[in-house]
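Ligand: N-carbamoyl-L-aspartate. Inputs:
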Amino acid sequence: MVCGHALTIQRVLTPRYLRAYDGLVSSQGFRHRHLVGISALAPEEITQILDLGDHYLELDAQPVKKLAELRGRTIINLFFESSTRTRTSFEIAAKRLGADAVNITGSASSTAKGETLIDTVRNVEAMRPDAIVVRHAFGGAAAMIAPHVGGAIINAGDGQHEHPTQALLDAATIRRHKGLKTAGSPRGGSIAGLEVAIVGDLAHSRVARSNILCLSKLGANVRACAPWTLVPRGLEDIGGEVTRAHTRITPHLDEALEGADVVMMLRVQNERTAGEAPRFPNAREFSRMYGLSVRTLERAKPDAIVMHPGPINRGVELAPEVADGARSVILEQVSWGVAIRMAVLRAWIMKSFEVP
Ligand code: NCD
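Predicted complex:
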Protein backbone atom coordinates (compact mmCIF):
# COMPACT_ATOMS: atom_id res chain seq x y z
CA MET A 1 0.00 0.00 0.00
CA VAL A 2 1.27 3.44 -0.77
CA CYS A 3 -0.57 6.71 -0.60
CA GLY A 4 -0.97 8.87 -3.70
CA HIS A 5 1.31 11.51 -2.28
CA ALA A 6 4.25 9.13 -1.99
CA LEU A 7 3.71 7.92 -5.55
CA THR A 8 3.74 11.49 -6.84
CA ILE A 9 7.08 12.07 -5.18
CA GLN A 10 8.57 9.04 -6.82
CA ARG A 11 7.35 10.20 -10.21
CA VAL A 12 8.45 13.82 -9.88
CA LEU A 13 11.84 13.34 -8.24
CA THR A 14 13.51 11.17 -10.82
CA PRO A 15 17.31 11.33 -10.82
CA ARG A 16 17.16 13.22 -14.15
CA TYR A 17 15.01 15.94 -12.59
CA LEU A 18 17.41 16.26 -9.67
CA ARG A 19 20.47 16.35 -11.92
CA ALA A 20 19.12 19.54 -13.46
CA TYR A 21 20.00 21.26 -10.17
CA ASP A 22 23.47 19.76 -9.95
CA GLY A 23 26.28 20.09 -12.41
CA LEU A 24 28.39 22.79 -10.77
CA VAL A 25 31.95 21.46 -10.75
CA SER A 26 34.37 23.48 -8.62
CA SER A 27 38.15 23.45 -9.03
CA GLN A 28 38.26 20.85 -6.22
CA GLY A 29 35.91 18.60 -8.18
CA PHE A 30 32.87 19.51 -6.10
CA ARG A 31 29.85 19.09 -8.38
CA HIS A 32 26.81 19.88 -6.22
CA ARG A 33 25.03 23.18 -5.82
CA HIS A 34 22.46 21.78 -3.41
CA LEU A 35 21.98 18.81 -1.11
CA VAL A 36 18.48 17.61 -1.94
CA GLY A 37 19.02 13.92 -1.32
CA ILE A 38 21.46 11.06 -0.94
CA SER A 39 20.27 9.98 -4.39
CA ALA A 40 22.58 12.56 -6.03
CA LEU A 41 25.71 11.55 -4.08
CA ALA A 42 28.34 9.10 -5.25
CA PRO A 43 29.65 6.55 -2.69
CA GLU A 44 33.08 8.27 -2.62
CA GLU A 45 31.42 11.61 -1.88
CA ILE A 46 29.48 10.08 1.02
CA THR A 47 32.76 8.71 2.41
CA GLN A 48 34.40 12.13 2.06
CA ILE A 49 31.55 13.74 4.04
CA LEU A 50 31.91 11.08 6.74
CA ASP A 51 35.67 11.74 6.90
CA LEU A 52 35.05 15.46 7.23
CA GLY A 53 32.49 14.67 9.97
CA ASP A 54 35.14 12.62 11.83
CA HIS A 55 37.40 15.65 11.71
CA TYR A 56 34.73 17.92 13.21
CA LEU A 57 33.70 15.35 15.84
CA GLU A 58 37.18 15.72 17.34
CA LEU A 59 36.12 19.27 18.27
CA ASP A 60 33.44 17.81 20.54
CA ALA A 61 36.09 16.92 23.11
CA GLN A 62 37.58 20.45 23.12
CA PRO A 63 36.40 23.02 25.68
CA VAL A 64 36.31 25.73 22.98
CA LYS A 65 34.40 24.40 19.99
CA LYS A 66 34.29 27.43 17.73
CA LEU A 67 36.15 27.72 14.43
CA ALA A 68 36.31 30.55 11.92
CA GLU A 69 36.03 28.56 8.68
CA LEU A 70 32.67 30.08 7.74
CA ARG A 71 33.16 33.47 9.39
CA GLY A 72 31.12 36.15 7.65
CA ARG A 73 28.80 33.58 6.01
CA THR A 74 25.05 33.56 6.63
CA ILE A 75 22.95 30.44 7.02
CA ILE A 76 19.17 30.58 7.27
CA ASN A 77 17.25 27.69 8.84
CA LEU A 78 13.80 27.72 7.28
CA PHE A 79 11.69 25.16 9.15
CA PHE A 80 8.02 24.66 8.28
CA GLU A 81 7.67 21.47 10.35
CA SER A 82 8.37 20.86 14.01
CA SER A 83 11.88 19.83 14.89
CA THR A 84 14.05 19.72 18.02
CA ARG A 85 17.21 17.85 17.02
CA THR A 86 17.65 18.80 13.38
CA ARG A 87 17.10 22.55 13.69
CA THR A 88 19.23 22.92 16.82
CA SER A 89 21.91 20.72 15.29
CA PHE A 90 22.12 22.85 12.12
CA GLU A 91 22.19 26.03 14.20
CA ILE A 92 24.99 24.78 16.46
CA ALA A 93 26.89 23.45 13.42
CA ALA A 94 26.70 26.84 11.69
CA LYS A 95 27.80 28.69 14.83
CA ARG A 96 30.71 26.29 15.52
CA LEU A 97 32.00 27.11 12.06
CA GLY A 98 31.77 30.83 12.83
CA ALA A 99 28.81 31.55 10.52
CA ASP A 100 25.79 33.68 11.41
CA ALA A 101 22.71 31.48 11.75
CA VAL A 102 19.16 32.81 11.56
CA ASN A 103 16.11 30.67 12.33
CA ILE A 104 12.71 31.09 10.70
CA THR A 105 9.92 28.73 11.73
CA GLY A 106 6.78 28.06 9.71
CA SER A 107 4.29 29.37 12.23
CA ALA A 108 6.29 32.59 12.55
CA SER A 109 6.82 33.06 8.80
CA SER A 110 4.62 34.86 6.28
CA THR A 111 3.46 31.56 4.75
CA ALA A 112 1.12 31.55 7.77
CA LYS A 113 -0.39 34.71 6.19
CA GLY A 114 -0.81 33.07 2.79
CA GLU A 115 2.53 33.78 1.13
CA THR A 116 3.66 30.99 -1.20
CA LEU A 117 6.75 28.93 -0.36
CA ILE A 118 8.57 30.30 -3.41
CA ASP A 119 7.75 33.90 -2.50
CA THR A 120 9.00 33.31 1.05
CA VAL A 121 12.20 31.80 -0.32
CA ARG A 122 12.74 34.63 -2.82
CA ASN A 123 12.45 37.14 0.01
CA VAL A 124 14.83 35.19 2.20
CA GLU A 125 17.16 34.90 -0.81
CA ALA A 126 17.11 38.70 -1.23
CA MET A 127 19.06 38.88 2.05
CA ARG A 128 21.84 36.88 0.30
CA PRO A 129 22.36 33.87 2.53
CA ASP A 130 25.14 31.44 1.62
CA ALA A 131 22.90 28.49 2.46
CA ILE A 132 19.24 27.89 3.27
CA VAL A 133 18.48 24.80 5.31
CA VAL A 134 14.88 23.83 4.66
CA ARG A 135 12.39 21.46 6.24
CA HIS A 136 8.91 21.17 4.78
CA ALA A 137 6.00 18.73 4.84
CA PHE A 138 5.93 18.63 1.02
CA GLY A 139 8.17 15.93 -0.42
CA GLY A 140 9.88 17.84 -3.20
CA ALA A 141 10.03 21.23 -1.43
CA ALA A 142 13.85 21.38 -1.44
CA ALA A 143 14.12 20.62 -5.17
CA MET A 144 11.27 23.02 -5.93
CA ILE A 145 12.96 26.04 -4.32
CA ALA A 146 16.50 25.21 -5.44
CA PRO A 147 16.29 27.11 -8.78
CA HIS A 148 15.25 30.27 -6.93
CA VAL A 149 18.37 30.73 -4.84
CA GLY A 150 21.97 31.71 -5.46
CA GLY A 151 23.42 29.84 -2.47
CA ALA A 152 23.00 26.22 -1.45
CA ILE A 153 19.74 24.55 -0.48
CA ILE A 154 20.29 21.89 2.17
CA ASN A 155 17.34 19.55 2.63
CA ALA A 156 16.61 19.00 6.33
CA GLY A 157 13.65 16.70 5.57
CA ASP A 158 10.99 17.12 2.88
CA GLY A 159 7.79 15.21 3.52
CA GLN A 160 8.21 11.52 2.82
CA HIS A 161 11.03 12.04 0.35
CA GLU A 162 14.52 12.41 1.86
CA HIS A 163 16.41 13.48 4.96
CA PRO A 164 20.00 13.30 3.72
CA THR A 165 21.87 14.65 6.77
CA GLN A 166 20.08 12.13 9.02
CA ALA A 167 21.29 9.25 6.82
CA LEU A 168 24.82 10.70 6.79
CA LEU A 169 24.94 11.00 10.57
CA ASP A 170 23.52 7.48 10.87
CA ALA A 171 26.22 6.15 8.54
CA ALA A 172 28.85 8.01 10.59
CA THR A 173 27.56 6.42 13.81
CA ILE A 174 27.48 2.95 12.23
CA ARG A 175 30.96 3.43 10.79
CA ARG A 176 32.37 4.43 14.17
CA HIS A 177 30.97 1.35 15.90
CA LYS A 178 31.15 -1.24 13.15
CA GLY A 179 33.52 0.15 10.51
CA LEU A 180 36.12 -2.29 9.29
CA LYS A 181 39.42 -0.50 8.68
CA THR A 182 40.93 -1.42 5.33
CA ALA A 183 43.72 -0.03 3.18
CA GLY A 184 41.07 1.63 1.01
CA SER A 185 39.22 3.27 3.89
CA PRO A 186 41.74 3.98 6.63
CA ARG A 187 39.92 6.77 8.44
CA GLY A 188 36.55 5.49 9.62
CA GLY A 189 36.60 2.05 8.04
CA SER A 190 34.16 0.40 5.68
CA ILE A 191 30.58 -0.60 6.48
CA ALA A 192 30.20 -2.79 3.37
CA GLY A 193 28.62 -6.15 4.15
CA LEU A 194 27.02 -5.09 7.45
CA GLU A 195 23.44 -6.23 8.03
CA VAL A 196 21.19 -3.33 9.00
CA ALA A 197 17.57 -3.85 10.05
CA ILE A 198 15.34 -0.78 9.54
CA VAL A 199 12.04 -1.41 11.32
CA GLY A 200 8.86 0.65 11.57
CA ASP A 201 6.82 3.05 9.50
CA LEU A 202 8.60 2.71 6.15
CA ALA A 203 5.69 4.27 4.28
CA HIS A 204 6.05 7.75 5.75
CA SER A 205 9.74 7.77 6.60
CA ARG A 206 12.14 10.01 4.72
CA VAL A 207 14.77 8.67 7.15
CA ALA A 208 14.20 5.13 5.84
CA ARG A 209 14.47 6.25 2.21
CA SER A 210 17.67 8.23 2.72
CA ASN A 211 19.18 5.41 4.80
CA ILE A 212 18.31 2.74 2.24
CA LEU A 213 20.06 4.85 -0.42
CA CYS A 214 23.06 5.72 1.73
CA LEU A 215 23.67 2.27 3.23
CA SER A 216 23.21 0.54 -0.14
CA LYS A 217 25.68 2.91 -1.78
CA LEU A 218 28.19 2.09 0.96
CA GLY A 219 27.66 -1.64 0.38
CA ALA A 220 25.71 -2.51 3.56
CA ASN A 221 22.65 -4.78 3.34
CA VAL A 222 19.31 -3.44 4.52
CA ARG A 223 16.47 -5.55 5.87
CA ALA A 224 13.49 -3.19 5.76
CA CYS A 225 10.71 -4.42 8.03
CA ALA A 226 7.11 -3.27 8.47
CA PRO A 227 3.58 -4.59 8.04
CA TRP A 228 2.75 -4.54 4.30
CA THR A 229 0.36 -1.64 4.95
CA LEU A 230 3.40 0.45 5.89
CA VAL A 231 5.65 -0.55 2.97
CA PRO A 232 5.58 1.84 -0.02
CA ARG A 233 5.50 0.13 -3.40
CA GLY A 234 8.89 0.03 -5.09
CA LEU A 235 10.86 0.94 -1.96
CA GLU A 236 13.73 -1.36 -2.91
CA ASP A 237 13.90 0.31 -6.36
CA ILE A 238 14.42 3.90 -5.18
CA GLY A 239 18.11 3.85 -6.07
CA GLY A 240 17.80 1.46 -9.03
CA GLU A 241 20.26 -1.46 -9.20
CA VAL A 242 22.22 -0.49 -6.09
CA THR A 243 19.22 -0.48 -3.73
CA ARG A 244 17.70 -3.56 -5.40
CA ALA A 245 20.93 -5.44 -4.74
CA HIS A 246 21.20 -4.33 -1.11
CA THR A 247 17.60 -4.14 0.17
CA ARG A 248 15.28 -6.92 1.28
CA ILE A 249 11.76 -6.23 2.54
CA THR A 250 10.14 -8.46 5.11
CA PRO A 251 7.01 -8.17 7.23
CA HIS A 252 8.57 -10.49 9.86
CA LEU A 253 10.50 -8.83 12.68
CA ASP A 254 12.35 -12.04 13.61
CA GLU A 255 13.65 -12.37 10.08
CA ALA A 256 14.80 -8.73 9.98
CA LEU A 257 16.60 -8.98 13.33
CA GLU A 258 18.27 -12.39 12.90
CA GLY A 259 22.03 -11.82 13.07
CA ALA A 260 21.73 -8.06 12.40
CA ASP A 261 24.73 -5.82 13.17
CA VAL A 262 22.59 -2.70 13.47
CA VAL A 263 18.92 -2.25 14.41
CA MET A 264 17.40 1.06 13.41
CA MET A 265 13.89 1.69 14.73
CA LEU A 266 11.47 4.24 13.25
CA ARG A 267 8.57 6.13 14.77
CA VAL A 268 5.03 5.56 13.49
CA GLN A 269 4.27 8.94 11.93
CA ASN A 270 0.66 9.36 13.01
CA GLU A 271 0.69 13.03 12.00
CA ARG A 272 0.99 11.97 8.33
CA THR A 273 -1.97 9.60 8.35
CA ALA A 274 -4.65 11.72 10.04
CA GLY A 275 -8.02 10.98 8.45
CA GLU A 276 -6.78 7.86 6.59
CA ALA A 277 -7.86 4.26 7.18
CA PRO A 278 -5.68 2.77 9.95
CA ARG A 279 -2.59 0.85 8.76
CA PHE A 280 -2.61 -1.43 11.85
CA PRO A 281 -5.26 -2.15 14.50
CA ASN A 282 -3.77 -0.18 17.39
CA ALA A 283 -0.48 0.93 18.95
CA ARG A 284 -0.41 -1.98 21.43
CA GLU A 285 -0.67 -4.55 18.64
CA PHE A 286 1.93 -2.72 16.55
CA SER A 287 4.24 -2.72 19.54
CA ARG A 288 3.75 -6.44 20.17
CA MET A 289 4.53 -7.34 16.57
CA TYR A 290 7.15 -4.76 15.60
CA GLY A 291 8.45 -3.26 18.84
CA LEU A 292 12.07 -3.78 19.89
CA SER A 293 12.29 -5.23 23.39
CA VAL A 294 15.08 -6.88 25.35
CA ARG A 295 13.63 -10.22 24.19
CA THR A 296 13.29 -9.43 20.47
CA LEU A 297 16.74 -7.80 20.40
CA GLU A 298 18.23 -11.19 21.34
CA ARG A 299 17.82 -12.24 17.70
CA ALA A 300 20.37 -9.65 16.58
CA LYS A 301 24.13 -10.14 16.98
CA PRO A 302 25.25 -9.90 20.64
CA ASP A 303 27.16 -6.69 19.84
CA ALA A 304 24.44 -5.15 17.64
CA ILE A 305 23.83 -1.43 18.15
CA VAL A 306 20.37 0.10 18.47
CA MET A 307 19.57 3.36 16.67
CA HIS A 308 16.59 5.71 16.34
CA PRO A 309 16.45 9.13 14.64
CA GLY A 310 14.13 10.50 17.36
CA PRO A 311 11.64 11.48 18.53
CA ILE A 312 11.03 8.11 20.20
CA ASN A 313 7.58 6.88 21.08
CA ARG A 314 8.65 5.06 24.22
CA GLY A 315 6.88 1.76 24.65
CA VAL A 316 5.61 1.70 21.05
CA GLU A 317 8.51 0.98 18.66
CA LEU A 318 11.13 0.84 21.39
CA ALA A 319 11.03 -0.49 24.97
CA PRO A 320 12.49 2.03 27.44
CA GLU A 321 15.07 -0.54 28.68
CA VAL A 322 16.39 -0.86 25.12
CA ALA A 323 16.29 2.88 24.39
CA ASP A 324 18.34 3.56 27.53
CA GLY A 325 20.31 0.29 27.45
CA ALA A 326 24.00 -0.37 26.86
CA ARG A 327 23.55 -1.09 23.15
CA SER A 328 21.68 2.12 22.39
CA VAL A 329 23.70 4.74 20.45
CA ILE A 330 20.73 7.09 20.10
CA LEU A 331 22.34 10.05 21.86
CA GLU A 332 25.60 9.48 20.00
CA GLN A 333 23.60 9.93 16.79
CA VAL A 334 22.68 13.38 18.08
CA SER A 335 26.34 14.26 18.76
CA TRP A 336 27.34 13.03 15.31
CA GLY A 337 24.53 15.12 13.87
CA VAL A 338 26.35 18.35 14.70
CA ALA A 339 29.66 17.12 13.23
CA ILE A 340 28.04 15.87 10.03
CA ARG A 341 26.08 19.09 9.59
CA MET A 342 29.29 21.06 10.04
CA ALA A 343 30.80 18.91 7.30
CA VAL A 344 27.81 19.46 5.00
CA LEU A 345 27.62 23.22 5.56
CA ARG A 346 31.34 23.66 5.03
CA ALA A 347 31.42 21.44 1.95
CA TRP A 348 28.39 22.98 0.27
CA ILE A 349 29.44 26.58 1.03
CA MET A 350 33.17 26.22 0.32
CA LYS A 351 32.57 23.75 -2.56
CA SER A 352 35.12 21.26 -1.29
CA PHE A 353 35.04 17.95 0.59
CA GLU A 354 38.63 18.39 1.68
CA VAL A 355 39.44 18.10 5.37
CA PRO A 356 40.86 21.55 6.24
C1 NCD B 1 12.84 12.33 11.83
C2 NCD B 1 12.18 13.29 10.82
O1 NCD B 1 11.78 14.38 11.17
O2 NCD B 1 12.13 12.87 9.69
N1 NCD B 1 13.41 12.95 12.92
C3 NCD B 1 14.58 13.65 12.85
O3 NCD B 1 14.84 14.39 11.93
N2 NCD B 1 15.45 13.47 13.84
C4 NCD B 1 12.00 11.16 12.12
C5 NCD B 1 10.66 11.35 12.78
O4 NCD B 1 10.11 12.43 12.84
O5 NCD B 1 10.13 10.33 13.24
